[in-house]
Structures are given as C-alpha cells and as structure tokens.
Amino acid sequence: MRFVRIQHYLDFDFPDSTPAELYLGKVFQTQEGHSAALAIDDTTPIKGRNVVIIDHPPTAGLVALVQALESGGATVHLRDHHADADRDGSNVAAVRALLGERAVVKTREEHPACSSLVEKGEFAYAIVIADADQDGLTAALKAIGVTYPQLDEDAAVLDGPIAGKTVEALSPLGFRLVRAWGALPPFGAPNRDEVLGLIAFAFAQTVNGDEEQGGRMLNEYAQEYECRVEVARELALRIEDLAPGVRSLDVRGASAYDQPTLTGLLDRGALVTVLIKSDGPIGKLAGAQVSLARTKLGETAWIDLAKLVPSDWPRGLEAGVISNTPFLLHLSPARWEEFKPILFTAVAALQG
Prior knowledge:
This protein is an alpha/beta fold and 352 residues long. The protein has 2 domains: 4-227, Protein-Tyrosine Phosphatase, Chain A, CATH 3.90.190.20; 238-350, Diaminopimelate Epimerase, Chain A, domain 1. Helix content is 43%, strand content 14%. It has helices at residues 30-43, 60-71, 89-99, 134-144, 151-158, 172-181, 192-207, 211-236, 259-267, 281-286, 296-300, 305-308, 333-350; strands at 4-5, 21-24, 50-54, 75-80, 103-105, 127-130, 240-243, 246-250, 272-277, 289-294, 321-322, 328-331. The strands form 2 sheets. It has a 6-stranded mixed sheet with strand order 1-2-6-3-4-5, sandwiched between helices. The protein has a 6-stranded mixed sheet with strand order 7-8-9-10-12-11. β7 and β8 form a beta hairpin. It starts with a strand and ends with a helix.
C-alpha cells in the first residue's frame, strides 16, 4: 500500500523552513512498512525530523514502519485508538517498546476519535502519517494546526458507521466533508489517490476559511456524490430475488454509483447478496466477476461463504475462485453457475 502525499496540494504559510508534510494511508505487512518508510524518505528526508503516525491500526506493517523510520534517523510518535482487540496485543506491545512514552495507544471507548489525542498545531513542523479516512484526515489536520471548534465532536461521528453521518449529527463543515468524500472512486481505481488528495486539500482550505477555492471544490465533489447516489437508486430498481434470502444485481456497464447506497438497498431482506460486475481481479481476466457478500442478517445466521466452496475446487485468480473470508467470495461466471445450487441449498436450510 502506498501513501498519498497531500503536501503538494496544500499551500499554507508556515513560519518555518520545514513545514508539515502530510501522508495518508496505512500498511499491513512487514515489507509494506519498510517500503513505505523508504518511499517517504525519498520524497521528504526523515533524518532529524519528527514523524507522527496517527490513527494507524496496530499491524505488523506499523511495527516495521516505526522501526524503519527510527533507523533512518527520525523521531517517531504514535497517536492511535486501536488498543481494543486482543489479537493486536503483540503489535501494540512492540510499538510501545520501540517508542516508550512517544507511543500513545488508547481504546475507542477512551477516545472515539484520534483528533482528541493531539493538540492543535502540536506537530506543525513534523511529517504526519495518518489513515486515509475521515477520522485520520481530521486528526492530521488538527495536528498541523488546521482545525475548527467542532472538529473533535465531528471526528467521533466520522469514525462511526455511515448511517450515523447525518446533517443532524455533524457540524456544517463535517457534513460537507462526508458528502464530498462520497465522490471518492472505488479502491483500486487509478485516480483514487488524486481525488483523495484534492478532497483533503479542499476540506483543509475550507476549514481555513477559503470558500472561493476550497468551498467550491467541496461543493463540486458533493454534487458528484449526489449524482452517484441517484445512479445507485436507479440501479436498485433492477435488483432480482434469485432465491429466498439471495438478492442479485448486474452493474456491468453502469455509470459511477455510490457503493454504500447501493449496498444498503441490495442488502434489504437478504442473507447473501450477489453483485455481477466488469471490474475486479477476476473480471479483468474472465470478463466479469461475481462478488458475493454476507449481509448482517447472513452473519446472524452464521453463513460462512468460504466454507460453502467445495474443498476440491482450486483457489486463485486463474481458477476463478477468491475465497479468504467468511463474508466475501469472488467467482468467475462459470464457477458462479456451479456454485448457485450450493448457495441456494445452504440458505434454504438456514431459513428452515
């Protein structure tokens, strides 16, 4: 995973020759952490600099990133609220051992948003690395000194479920960020990083009072989001009930749509949803990809999509079967035709 450098979009006047540098992203694997540190150092030399990592889950990649940054001469700080899960305990312990008091790792119950773990402008001259989500962005901006009175309250909402990000729950600025964020292209899209950088820039400029440029850009992205929501609602009219508890939609050739809106409409009353699309790793190879997802109702019914795949089916891209989790399954069209009766029988049995 590469980090998106936001600095070249930002144009703030810092009273210093070493202004903050902002990167958004996260790393999961050890090698990714080492590679990310090298990439950042190539763009922004880290020797002698303070580096703060904000809102990054305690992964093996984070431990490697911290080690590599410190080895390169940086002084690393960590501010995070992912200390809840037992499975992450060893990584939390590792970064605390590496950084000592500079590792501030709390729980979400203590700090619903990471912005409450930094003071305004505390890292105004640092290299700031934050998760590429709304909580990470707001915390990073506060760390470099770009903030507004309701930021902490907004950030707590922004780090929650999308259904809670309403006009009533957020400040006007926070809600504008949500609407603009909806214009982000899907993961893997070639222009996602560019759009992410521009939305971050627009929000930061708007927070700083620049309605002419930043506010205009936020409004344009919000309008794009509204268009995608409308496309999603139109697509939802084509949803098919393949069997009791199984709903399907073919989105091949569709215009850009808002995925959360479409997912919410497709999930209604379903245990498993089926989305047929042209993109995705299998789609690029086979011409189409059939992506199955377990809904909340399906989770309650203990559906495990990975276990439903016959054990003698080969896995992998060329085999047309990508099955790594109980809640997602990606198939080629040919494999989907074979899997249909298996799925329908399993869902029917669960429904009595």
